[in-house]
Q: What sequence folds into this?
């Protein structure tokens, strides 16, 4: 189904155009901002509408269908992240999952957590919040946003218990070599936690094979799902050690017995799910992931790489500075670039916005984040708009 055309594009243009028809936003703007919030597809909206319709007419009788949809989705998530379904729990967002981890481990005074400078706050606060328990935070400095797994290895001490890192850094798109880092963490007996929100859905991920112990991922960016639904993955060994910090009535095996005399936790990661579910989010994410898996994450990555290659070429020719690493191992779906000065960058950003090119300004740079339904025509239009805007 996915065959390259004569211009070496990854997707057949008819196929691309049928996918584009699922995203009404393409008729309004050129949307290159999936590292912020994804626009909703018709399929996602329809799935959520049908859930609401059922709920309106069936009330509690709808619940069986919702529970089934959640289990179907769990299997899809397992496929998406390369991990067993038993390790997956649905949560509200990235922060909820990372707080589950921070609060679920037993900390001793002097324990250390290692992270990288410049991380998004969601991956910082849950852990700095542990300072009151005597936990020390080590922050690895980067070289202009670049770091290696070996840098992290050298920063691990005998007291380090956890390394927490983003799969892809939000501001410059730098992709961590998680496979190498997983091996390092395993050999040092340190847990590895990954905030994968800026990579999962656009960059292939193999959580189990890479030795990731914990993963947190809100749905509203590259997973193209509604806000308020996210994924938490807990590896088998960590599941043995991690406590359920916020215990809910549905964390136990026989919830409907209402026998509260003992707490018999569910055997798998569902024990972390926090009571009555956001089923509308489950329906939305189910439809969103069905589409992403239909396209194929490997194909999405190749297509996005193809678009970004052209962006880099065009922007460089126009005299822009590429901020993101173009090392094959560290590329992602995010490209950051700047103009000669911060002021000039902001002016170009404002001008792009007025021309209906939707991107973000992060750390003083323009951040472009295309997804699978973006076309080369849109990229060419963007490059023309940058050239015109920079001449203002
Ligand atoms: C790396 C990273 N983590 C997390 C988030 C969001 O966290 P949450 O899902 O908790 O809102 C963002 C962006 O909003 C992000 O860029």
A:
């Amino acid at each position: 189904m996915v065959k390259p055309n004569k211009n070496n594009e990854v997707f057949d243009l008819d196929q691309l155009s049928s996918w584009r028809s699922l995203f009404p936003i393409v008729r309004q703007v050129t949307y290159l901002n999936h590292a912020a919030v994804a626009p909703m597809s018709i399929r996602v909206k329809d799935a959520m509408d049908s859930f609401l319709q059922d709920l309106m007419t069936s009330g509690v009788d709808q619940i069986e269908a919702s529970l089934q949809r959640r289990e179907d989705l769990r299997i899809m998530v397992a496929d998406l992240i390369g991990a067993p379904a038993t390790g997956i729990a649905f949560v509200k967002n990235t922060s909820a999952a990372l707080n589950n981890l921070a609060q679920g481990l037993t900390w001793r005074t002097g324990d250390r957590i290692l992270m990288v400078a410049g991380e998004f706050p969601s991956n910082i606060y849950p852990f700095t919040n542990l300072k009151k328990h005597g936990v020390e935070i080590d922050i690895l400095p980067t070289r202009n946003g670049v770091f290696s797994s070996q840098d992290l290895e050298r920063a691990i001490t005998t007291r380090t218990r956890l390394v927490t890192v983003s799969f892809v850094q939000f501001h410059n798109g730098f992709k961590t070599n998680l496979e190498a880092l997983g091996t390092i963490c395993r050999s040092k007996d340190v847990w590895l936690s990954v905030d994968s929100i800026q990579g999962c859905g656009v960059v292939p991920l193999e959580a189990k094979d890479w030795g990731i112990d914990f993963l947190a991922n809100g749905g509203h960016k590259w997973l193209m799902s509604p806000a308020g639904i996210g994924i938490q993955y807990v590896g088998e060994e960590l599941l043995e050690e991690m406590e359920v910090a916020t215990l809910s009535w549905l964390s136990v095996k026989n919830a409907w017995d209402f026998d509260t005399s003992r707490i018999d936790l569910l055997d798998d990661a569902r024990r972390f799910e926090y009571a009555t579910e956001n089923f509308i989010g489950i329906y939305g994410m189910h439809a969103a992931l069905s589409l992403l898996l239909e396209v194929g994450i490997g194909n999405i990555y190749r297509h996005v790489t193809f678009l970004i290659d052209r962006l880099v070429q065009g922007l460089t020719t126009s005299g822009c500075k590429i901020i993101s690493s173009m090392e094959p191992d560290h590329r992602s779906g995010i490209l950051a670039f700047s103009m000669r000065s911060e002021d000039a960058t902001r002016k170009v950003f404002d001008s792009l916005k007025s021309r209906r090119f939707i991107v973000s300004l992060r750390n003083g740079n323009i951040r472009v984040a295309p997804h699978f339904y973006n076309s080369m025509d849109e990229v060419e239009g963007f490059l023309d708009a940058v050239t015109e805007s920079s001449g203002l």
